[in-house]
Each structure stands twice: as structure tokens, then as C-alpha cells.
Amino acid sequence: MRQQKSFRDRNSYPEPADLPVPPVNITKQVVTPVLTPSVAEKEIIKLLMKYGSNEFMRHISKEDGKEELITVSDYIVKEIISDDLQFDDPLYASIFSEYRFAVEQGTFIEEKGFVKHQDPAISRLAADLLSEPHTLSRIYTLKQTYVETEEMKLRQVVPDAILFFKSGKIKQHMAGIEKQIEAAQTSGDIDKAMELIRKKMALSAALKSISQQLGDRITL
Predict the structure, then answer these.
(1) Containing domain of residue 134, as a range?
(2) Could you tell me the pTM of the whole model?
């Protein structure tokens, strides 16, 4: 009787309710972080505040052969003002102007120099940036590249931060030029439209150059 029952069980069709429920595969959407111009500006100011007085590189003068120490703030300020770039955020712009003044005077600002700033908004911003954990730069998160700490890789993090900053400004400028091209074409000013198109092509070439310098690690 047991054998007969076992045979019937093996050959009987289970009810739908008795069937095992297959696991539901939930596909998680991978969101690629975007480094917006405001984030790029914040990255620059954060690097200045945390590592501005740190040694970035040493340069041998061709004139007298003396060794010159270049700090992180020296390098960042020089790179930004050489292309006449501006910060959109007024707080970041104000902080950068003070770093620029210090570099031009041959002095440096201490790491927590802005925490007791006379402007409460700048003071709060400095406290927030300096209180953030000592983690990898957002730029390296975008690249999915592992490094130990920002401080140990300043020679890579700082130039890349500058390149991302510049790429954002270039794209902003290109967007403005595209609108001007449309306006010139609508008004029939062909000469102006062609001049603007040449400017756009030059900016596009600069953007491509930045991408190549970054090794095409992400799409700018």
C-alpha cells in the first residue's frame, strides 16, 4: 500500500498552490554619478582647504637653478587664472579669491583658516568641508579607480579636479555659443554665425583634449 501511494504521489500533478514560487529577480538600476559644475567647484575648494599648503611638486628654475616648492594652492590658482575661469557659486568664488591673493603675495592660508571667517556663510561652509571624512575624491568614485587616500595621490587628484572643472566651464560656454549661433542664423547674420561655429569647434577640440588627458576614463 505504501509503494502504491508513493507511485501515485510521483505521478500526480501538483496543484498550482503547491508549486514552489520562483525567486523574483529584481534588477537594480545602476545610477552613474554626474560631476556637475557645482560639484566640480566644491571639489576645487575642498582640495584648497584641506591640502592647499601641502607640497605638490618641486620646480628647478632655469634662470638661477634654484629649487622652487610649488604647493597645491599654487598649482590650482595658476591653472584656473591662466584660462581666466570663474566660479559660479559666490561663496566658492569669494574663497578662491582669497587663495589667489595669498598665492600672489607668496603666503598660504592655514587649513582651518576659514572656519573662523568673518562671513558666517563661509565659516559654515569651511566647517562642513573640513568635517567630511577623509575619503576618496568624488572624481575617483566616478572613475571607479582605487587609491588609498587623497593626500597620498594629490599629484593625480589635483590635476584631474582641474580638468573636470575646466570641462564644465567649457560645456557651459559651448551651450551659450549654440544659442548665439541659432540667433545669428535666424537673423540671417551668416558671418557672425560662422565665427561662432569656429569658436564652438575650438572649444570642442579643447574638450576632446581634456578627455584624452583623463585617458577617456569617463565621458565628459
Answers:
(1) 37-213
(2) 0.70
